[in-house]
Amino acid sequence: MICEQIHPGHWRLSFAEPEAGFLIHVLARLRRHYQEDVAQLPPALRAYWEGRMTRGQVSDKNELKEAQEVLSEARAELRSERQALVENWIREYELAEERDPWKVEISSAERDEFVAMLNDRRLLLALELGITEQDMEADPGQISEEARRSAILEIDVLGHFILVTLGPQIYRP
Amino acid sequence: MSQVESMLGAMILTTIRRGIDEGRDGSPLPSQIFEGRDGTRVPTLAKPGTETSPDIDVEEKLKEAFERGWSVIVWNDPVNLMDYVVYVFKAVLKMNEQDASRHMWEVHQKGKSAVAQETREKSELIVHRLRGFGLNATMEPA
Questions:
Q1: Which among B60, B72, B79 is the top mutation candidate for probing chain A, defined by the most A β-carbons within 10 Å of its own β-carbon?
Q2: Is pLDDT above 90 for B133?
Q3: What are phi and psi of B69, to 5 degrees?
Q4: Minimal CB count within 10 Å: which of A84, A173, B3, B80?
C-alpha cells in the first residue's frame, strides 16, 4: 500500500491486489457490524458504541445524565455515517476498472474517516476477543488459539494501513 | 482598558446585581414578594398579574458556561497506535507535534492524560470527537 499527497489536502491511496482484497473483506465485515442493532451486541461492543461520558466522581449524579444520552445518540448516528462510508468504499471498488493496483483519491477529511473506520475494526476485534496489551506485544505465531491469532494479525495489518496513510506523527527531537 | 475603566465596569455590574437581588438596604424589593392564592408568600421579580420566568440562577448558569471547569481525559488501551493517537490529538485538539507526543506518552506510561480543560459544552464536544476516532475519552470536573 502506498499513500501519496497529490496536492495540499488531497491524497492518493494505492493498494496491490491482495491488499485491496483484504481491505474489501474487512469493509464487508464492518458493514455487517454497523447494520447490527446495538442492543443485540455483546456487552463489550455495546459499551463501545454507547460510550461513557465520565469515570470520575461527579458531585451530582444526574449532572451528566443528559450529556450521556447525547453521547449515545451521537454514537448511533456515527454508526449510520460509517455504514454509508463503508458502502461507498465497496461501491468504488466494484466500479473500478483497474484493481491492481486499486487507486483511490481522497481529501484530508476522507482520510480521517478512512483511518477512523479501520480503527473501529481493530478496536472491535480486540473488544470481542478480550485482546490485551500482552497479546499485542506477543509474537502472533506463538498464539495457539486460531481466532485470537487471526484477529491480532488483522489488527496489525490494519494498523500498518493506518500508519502508511498518516505517515509518522510522533515528535522525535 | 484602563484600571479606572475596569473599576467603573465592576461598580456598574455590582450596582446592577444589587438592583436585581435586593433593595438598597439589602431587603427584598416589594416586587419580589407576592402573596399567592393560598396566602403563602411567593418571591418573584414580576408584579402580580404579569408573566414570570422560571427561577433560574443566572449567575450560576453564566459561571458554568464560561468557566473552564471540565477536564477531558484520554485513557490507555491496548490497541490504539501511538502515531495514530498523536495524529488524533493534533487533528481534534489542534496540538502541535511536541505537545501531542507528550500527552500520548503520558497516556501510554501513566494510563491517562488530561488533554484539555474547557467549558462543559466544549468538553462534551471534544469527548464526542475523540471517541469518533476510537480513543477512550471521558470528562470530569477539573
A1: B79
A2: yes
A3: -95, 10
A4: A173
What the block records as the C-alpha cell of A170 is 510522533
pLDDT, tens only, A69-124? 999 999 999 999 999 999 999 999 999 999 999 999 999 999 999 999 999 999 99
Q: Which of A64, A132, A163 sits opposite B78 (nearest CB)?
A: A132
Domains of chain B: residue spans and CATH: 3-55 (no CATH), 64-141 (3.30.1390.10)
From B97, B102, B133, residue closest to A116, measured CB to CB: B133
C-alpha B104, offset from chain centre? 26
pLDDT at B25: 44
* CA–CA separation, A141 and A170 (whole Å): 29
Q: What are phi and psi of A12, to 5 degrees?
A: -120, 125
Per the CB < 8 Å rule, is B81 touching A162?
A: yes
* Beta pairing class for B136-141 and B70-75: antiparallel
Q: Tell whether the model's pLDDT for residue B55 goes beyond 80.
A: no
| Cα distance between residue A5 and residue A36, in whole Å | 35
d(CA A54, CA A58): 8
Q: Taking CB atoms and an 8 Å cutoff, what residues of chain A touch B102?
A: 171
